[in-house]
Design brief:
Blueprint lengths: L1 H28 L4 H9 L6 H10 L6 H13 L13 H36 L4 H13 L4 H15 L15 H34 L3 H8 L4 H38 L5 H11 L2 H29 L7
Helix pairs in contact: 1-12, 5-6, 5-8, 5-10, 6-8, 7-8, 7-10, 8-10, 9-10, 10-11, 10-12, 11-12
């Protein structure tokens, strides 16, 4: 187990390095100059070449790309993600302010997807061909194809503008106003969780249908065990492995969906920061957001791999 975890950690580091390189280079290959955008935002006077050179030197943009990348990675390893080009504030301050918001929405969506999606899929498999199976399967097929940004707009129109039950947009900390925060996150969390709920339900149904046809399940039935005991103690644990894999992949889906959802509902999280930073070509913010999201996805996949041994004792980490 220890050797396997070390090997997976090494692979995770390689993936993160490749992601950081991709983000670093892609931002600098975009057309436009962030220094010009910064000067235009700060001054209406004529911009001289000397002023541009001074700003580039201040932010290290006068160096070669390899040196810029090494400086950035060195700072990241010391907890310094750089300084914003547009507002000249440390990137880590804005990240620490927005990261809890995105994680709050994402963790709630992930939990809801597990709590609702897996039991729904199991019930469909146990009651295969019944009205419940047909109903849930239809909803899952619809839910997995609905664009989250379109769904968000529809929810705003129906529940915020038409009925007036929920706030249109915004986010306030639950420590400041728990009830208002609860109303604000209902629609965003539902949008983020819908796709993973549908995916978990479909995968859980498929996996359970395969497991309940196994010989040991038929043996359990022949012994006269109760249905609940057969499903919970014998079938569910073996049927969960594909679902766990899909749930780990769902972390990336939720974080990616946060980019759209935070724009639709005007939530000041990491996704909205990424969008505005890309538009403004504020390199340090984009690099920090992409790296943090990549770390979250890699850690989720590592936990999924480790959980296989607990779910199925036959799995060996050799």
């Amino acid at each position: 187990m220890t050797t396997y975890i070390i090997r997976r950690l090494i692979l995770a580091v390689i993936v993160l390095v490749l992601v950081s390189l991709f983000v670093f280079l892609s931002m600098r290959l975009l057309p436009g100059d962030p220094v010009l955008m910064y000067m235009s935002a700060r001054s209406v006077q004529e911009i001289t070449e000397e002023q541009l050179d001074l700003v580039r030197q201040e932010f290290g943009l006068d160096k070669s790309l390899p040196l810029q990348y090494l400086d950035w990675i060195s700072g990241v390893l010391h907890g310094d993600f750089g300084t914003s080009i547009l507002n000249r504030s440390p990137v880590i301050q804005e990240i620490l302010r927005r990261l809890p918001i995105t994680f709050h929405l994402g963790i709630l969506a992930f939990i809801i997807a597990i709590v609702i999606g897996i039991p729904a899929g199991v019930l469909c498999a146990v009651r295969r061909g019944g009205w419940l199976d047909n109903f849930v399967t239809t909803l899952a097929n619809i839910g997995i194809t609905v664009p989250v940004f379109w769904l968000g707009i529809i929810l705003i129109y129906v529940f915020a503008l038409y009925f007036g039950w929920l706030p249109v947009m915004g986010y306030i900390s639950p420590f400041e106003n728990f009830w208002l925060n609860t109303k604000q996150i209902i629609m965003p969390v539902f949008c983020l969780a819908l796709g993973p709920i549908a995916g978990n339900a479909r995968q859980a149904r498929s996996s359970m249908l395969e497991v309940i046809r196994k010989d040991y399940i038929r043996t359990a039935w022949s012994k006269g065990l109760k249905e609940r005991a057969i499903i919970m103690k014998h079938a569910l644990k073996n049927g969960l492995m594909p679902v766990v894999t899909l749930s780990g992949m769902g972390v990336g889906t939720i974080l990616g969906g946060a980019v759209l959802i935070e724009q639709v509902f005007n939530i000041p999280g990491m996704g909205r920061l990424a969008v505005t930073s890309v538009m403004n070509q504020d390199y340090p913010y984009v690099q920090a957001v992409a790296l943090i999201m990549a770390i979250s996805i890699v850690l989720a996949n590592l936990l999924v791999d480790i959980s296989y041994g607990w779910l199925d004792p036959r799995v060996r980490y050799n």
